[in-house]
Design brief:
With 136 residues, the protein is mainly alpha-helical. The chain has two domains: 79 residues, Orthogonal Bundle (Multidrug-efflux Transporter Regulator, Chain: A, Domain 2); 40 residues. It is 54% helix and 6% strand. The protein has five helices and four strands. A hairpin with a 5-residue loop joins strand 1 and strand 2. The relative contact order is 0.08.
Amino acid sequence: MRIGELSRRTGVHTHQLRYYEAQGLLEAERRANGYREYGENAVLRVKQIRHLLGAGLSSEDIAYLLPCAFGEAPELAGCPELLAAMRSRLQRLNDQMDRLAQSRDALADYIAAAERMGGESYPPYDGAGREPVPAA
């Protein structure tokens, strides 16, 4: 099937499919006219990629995991280093969440301190990281 058909069957834009191919996640044969030709297994592969991206994995992580993937969800088995790689990724996510929680707590403390010191007389913050909103 050509890239447009794969896009229709998976709901993934053609530019994303080209990116997956460039990252080594998806394979296509080239016809003499230069068109990509995907096998029937490409639909399943794209669904696997989308699920793994949804889990927060990078394309590099996914390239490593795909040989171990089967089924649409996908289920992962059969690669000796697989569990260690997933544990490492999970630890990185936990570390990021810890840093975000610390930042959130520190910011909440600053806000509370400013409010105790009469910070309400300042223009309100817009919440999007921009300059304070002028008082109306």
